[in-house]
Every structure is written in structure tokens, then in C-alpha cells.
Amino acid sequence: MNATEPDLSARWKRFAEAHWGREPAAVPFATGLGPEQVYGAVAASCAPPAEDAAGVRFATAAQGRLRDAGVLLPGLDDPGPDAYRDRLARQLDDSGWMLSVRQPLWRDFGLWTRVRELVSGLWRAVGWPTLPVTAELALGEHCTGPDAPAPRPGSFALTWVLAGTMTIRLWPEHTGTEYQLAAGTGDLVYWPAGCRHLDHYLDRCTTLRIVVPARRAAALTHVRGLLADRMQEDRVYAGATGVLPFPPPADPDGEIGAAEPVAAAARLFAGLAAGPGPARELRVAWAARRSAAGLEPVPPPRPAVPLDPGLRVRASAELFRTPDGPGRAVWAANGHTLVVEGAGAERVRNRLWSGRAFAIRELGRASRMPAKALIPLLSDLHHIRAIELVDGDAAE
Predict the structure, then answer these.
(1) Alpha-carbon torsion, ordered 140, 144, 150, 156, to 10 deg
(2) What are the phi and psi torsion angles at 312 (to 5°)?
(3) CA atoms of 352 and 340, how far apart (whole Å)
(4) Which residue has the higher pLDDT, 350 or 175?
């Protein structure tokens, strides 16, 4: 970001006080990001075979959304956003178009980190999201979004115009009001939960949008998915037939009760939900999500490198910590988690996150951890980019 962290926090605080939870608004809020910084993530998301999984959408003003955009997507002959726009202008005879990609940030750790720093300032002011947020990057040229209007009443949204200009029409639910907001380079468009919207991209527009679930019911999908995964691990449940015998079994009074496979699934579901396992998994997932500021999926860890006692290391990311039972804790950084035990590990954490660089040998003496325990811990922290070598990391 161009602004220092205290400046960014102050800007978010003023924004939250003036606009949060109120009416839609467009305000100046530059990010320091431009089309060149985000284009690589867009192009990588469009490269085969990633197109289907990445949530790529391409539309033209004349034809609407295209199911197979083919050569109209960024390719090897488009080294940057300007080259890509110029090629489309020739191929489409200057007709309007729009390309959007969902969840592209994990492909570029540097970009993902900058966006995390950007949104973390807002979360510190209004509260951290408990569910994953959706990031979208879009490029457009004189084209209306393919969803008309896009229904997102259960989420609030933040849209930064990184370049160009756009307008957004908004319809808050349960009211007869319509908003039309205009925004240009360096502006932020915000709307609270309960709004449908329609984007219109004007000249050479590039945007970053963050969509955050705002209603408690959205948590159901995540909890249900977790319990379903655990049910599939039960061999009796997973291997049982779902077909009833014929004739169906009946009670002594002749009544036919609930189908046993369904009833058994309900009992297993209730038992798992009441047990400690899912609660712990959700707690660990929250630690990872908190360290990622909700931006999931997260970039993969970097390749492991050998560490020796003579190397110097320092903290390079916030480390979020949550208790995990007597003498044990979950540490999270950059969306990844570690389970650690013992007072020695906590002494290492306190030292490293004091702001200084330390030789590994010095950390071992201060923490009273033997090298055979300290080196693997530091290797894990380096692997998830929580610490870095003072002389630089070649392997990212």
C-alpha cells in the first residue's frame, strides 16, 4: 500500500464511522494497486485447464455472457493489460466487453498479501469475517455486467476502481429506492447487505471487489460440509445401502416408521454435531481464516529449505494464536496452521514477534529448546511464510 499502516487504519476508521452499515456510497480510497499488478493473476486464472474452476466469466455488449470465450481470454501474446485490451478492440471491432475472475488472488502471494493488508484495516474497525470472503478481479470496456441485476442480498461488497471509470446501479431490498453511483480511478464503492446491483464498465476499467457474507445463515453451508465429510469417514455409514428391503419393515401396530438409512444418517449427524471434533475443526479453521483476513483460498506454502543454527531469522507475518487444550496451541499465519506444544515454543514466539532478528542458535539458548525440536518448528514457520531469513529467501 502507498499509505503506512497507521494511515490506512485511520482511513478505515473514518470510513466505518461515516458509511458502515448505512447507505451505498462511492468515496475516494486509493489502494496503490493498478491494472499491471493484478493482470498476472487474471491471466493465470484464464489459462487452461484452470478456466472452469476459476470462475471465469466473459461477456460482450453485443452477445452477453459467452459460455466459451476461447481466444478472447488473455493468452501468451498479451504481456500486459494494455496489450490485451488493444487486441480485443481489434477482434471485437471496438465492441464492449467484460472479463471477471473469482478467487484469483491465491495465485500471486505478493498480490494476496497486499489485498489482505488492505482489508485487514477495515476488519479491525468493524470486526473480522467469520466466513470466507470472495475476491473478484474484473476488466471491462463499455459493457454491462452479464448478471442483470446480480442478486447478492445476503452480502456486503467493496469495489475498488483500480483504473478507468464505471457506474453501479443498486436496489436495496424492502425499499423502492434506486442508487446510481459513479466511480473512477482510486474510488471505493460500498454497499451494505440487502442490495442487488448491476455493473456498467466504461473506458479501460479494472476493478477489485470483495464480497463478504453478512448473515448468519451463510454459516450453514460450511458446518454442513464439515459434518458431511466426517460422515463419509464412517465406514458403516459410507458402505451401507440406501435401499429398503421389500416389503418394508413395520412396527407391531402395522405403522411403517422412518426409513432406517435416513434415520441412521440423522443419528450420526446429530452425534457428530454434539461431539468435540467438529467444534475443534471449526476453531482451527477460524484461526487460519483470521490469519488470512478471510481471503480463501490461500497461496500454498513455499518450498522447504534447510535451516542450520548459524542462520538469522525474523518474523515476516502476523501470527494468530488460539489455545488448543492444556499446554497446546494453534498458530496460524497466511492462512496455514501449526499445532505446537510446550512452553519452549511460546518463548520462541515471544522472541521472534518482538520485532528483532535472531540467530537460530540464539533462539535455542533463549527458549531452552534443543536444536532437534527448534529447527523443525522454525522450518514449519518458514514454510508458511511466518518467518523469513534475514539474508533473504530465494525460494518463494
Answers:
(1) 50
(2) -110, 140
(3) 15
(4) 350
For residues 190 and 14, give the distance between their C-alpha atoms in angstroms, rounded to a whole number: 14
Residue 361 exposure: Cα atoms within 13 Å on the Cβ side: 4
**261 pLDDT above the threshold of 90:** no
Whole-prediction pTM value? 0.88
282-321 burial, b if ≥16 CB within 10 A, otherwise e?
A: eebbbbbbbbbbbbbebbebbeeeebeeebbbebbbbbbb
Contacts of residues 324-330 at CB distance under 8 Å and 24 or more positions apart, as own/partner, are: 324/280, 324/283, 324/284, 330/283, 330/284, 330/287
**Which amino acid is it at 296?**
E
Q: How confident is the model at residue 218 (pLDDT cuts 50, 70, 90)?
A: confident
Flag whether pLDDT at 194 surpasses 60: yes
Long-range Cβ contacts of 363-367 (<8 Å, 24+ apart): 363/313, 364/309
Phi, psi of 248 (to 5 degrees): -65, 145
pLDDT at residue 5 above 80? no
CA distances in angstroms from 161 to 166, 271, 306, listed in the order given: 8, 48, 43
Retrieve residue 289's grid coordinates: 481464516
SS3 content of the chain, % helix, strand, coil (to 5): 35, 25, 35
Range scoring the smallest mean pLDDT among 7-11, 290-294, 375-379: 7-11
